[in-house]
Amino acid sequence: MGLEVGWYLRFAKTDRIEALVSAKGAEQVRHEGHIFTDWSFAFEEVGDHVRAVMTRNKPLFDKD
């Protein structure tokens, strides 16, 4: 999962990505925060899963 998240962050045409990941895979997504420092990561437990919300620090696409 972590590698897939990396591709989404690298080529995203949006400033916010939300993913529901298994609790076991959440650490891999958290690790991406060390690699993609231009994104902010927030995590919330949702039952037996974790919602990961990744927001670009400097918006590129969702400007009003």
Description:
With 64 residues, the protein is α+β, with helices and mostly antiparallel strands. The protein has one domain. The protein has 2 helices and 3 strands; from the N terminus they run αβαββ. It has helices spanning 2-11, 26-35, and strands at 16-22, 39-46, 49-56. A 3-stranded antiparallel beta sheet has the order 1-3-2, with helices on one face. Strand 2 and strand 3 (49-56) form a beta hairpin. Helix 1 (2-11) crosses helix 2 (26-35). The chain starts with a helix and ends in an 8-residue tail after the last strand. The mean pLDDT is 90.
Summarize the structure.
This protein is 31% helix and 36% strand. The chain contains two helices and three strands. Strands 1-3-2 form a three-stranded antiparallel β-sheet, with helices on one face.
Shape: globular
Helix amount = 25-40%
Strand content: 35-45%
Mean pLDDT: 90
Number of helices: 2
Features:
64 residues, alpha+beta, 3 strands, three-stranded antiparallel sheet
